[in-house]
Amino acid sequence: MTTLALDGVRVLDMTHVQSGPSATQLLAWLGADVVKVEAPGGDITRRQLRDVADADSLYFTMLNCNKRSITLNTKTGRGQEILTALIRGADVMVENFAPGAVERMGFSWERIREINPRIVYASIKGFGEGPYTDFKAYEVVAQAMGGSMATTGFEDGPPLATGAQIGDSGTGIHAVAAILAALLQREKSGRGQRVNVAMQHAVLNLCRVKLRDQQRLAHGPLAEYPNDDFTDEVPRSGNASGGGQPGWAVRCAPGGPNDYVYVIVQPVGWQPLSALIGRPELAADPEWATPEARLPKLAKMFQLIEEWTSTLPKWQVLQQLNAHNIPCGPILSPKEIIEDPSLADNDMIVEVAHPQRGTFTTVGNPLKLSDSPTTITTPPLLGQHNEEIYIGELGLGDEELRLLRSGGVI
Questions:
Q1: φ, ψ for residue 235 (rounded to 5)?
Q2: Which bin fits 17, alpha (ψ -120 to 50), beta or left (φ > 0)?
Q3: pTM for the full model?
Q4: For the chain, what percent of residues have pLDDT higher than 90?
Q5: Are 409 and 79 in contact (CB under 8 A)?
Q6: Catalytic residue numbers?
């Protein structure tokens, strides 16, 4: 029988919505026993954006696979006693409540460490200590305050949010890294520790290249940007690659909203690219032959490339560019991604059976471990594992469980 990487690790999942559940789902995919502790009403996302009446929403199901669910009202005295027992038996506890919420329950870090000195207690918040601490944090608020929105969009347009959930799921991935590091350190020290990850900080970490460019501005305009004018702040630069090799999304036939291919123009690729676009003479033209000559004319260069790509479907453009080792990729819509057989073959688009929905499609585990293969299992129904955990693992009796239910504790 295969032993998964985190077999034997018990995670107490007191998270909700996305940033926390995305982290604990990754831990579950790596083999941890993740017990999702929900208020008797359940995680709010069970009901948000429903597409099937009286069934858990895709918002919930796609973030909570491979977990077990129990209900617990931690505002009651008995609920706090049960939570204490759960903490005592856990290796990791993860929460993403508003600042101070867990402390108001009576579970400060000092109290949690007293209950279980070996526990890794991870908190995901919107912001670090300071003037933003009590701000309400949402995905796009984190993008706004972490540097992403100011540098996303076109020069003459407003700041834009990215479709990637870098504030929520991006923070969840950072939290997983910190939790795994703390578990590894515990193997040496025997002690658990406090882990704090802020959404603003995670977005900032993902935007480091823009801080690089902010400092480079002190020495003059950024040559690899397509912008004509520069101030003392990094500008929005559309679809520019942001790296040393210029790139852009060029339109393809028949001109639909996602009929684009992203093309990177490396020095070695200019000669074959010039031939493909029907302008082979540009490979030897001193005005175009070198990267230094092309940098001031990036807009014109990609216009010439687009005059060729706009006559062909994106998959044909892709085929011809790849035949010459020119870095490129088609713009794939969610519909194309969900229908992509290669992603299904790599277990990145998976079908999961669900007792309420029938089946749903979700994203598989991107972390591929040769000795710890992931099988995506259905997310739990609300309180599905109350008896299994409260009676089978905590040793409560059937009658007590009935009283806890009737008393609103679970």
A1: -85, 165
A2: left
A3: 0.95
A4: 96
A5: yes
A6: 168
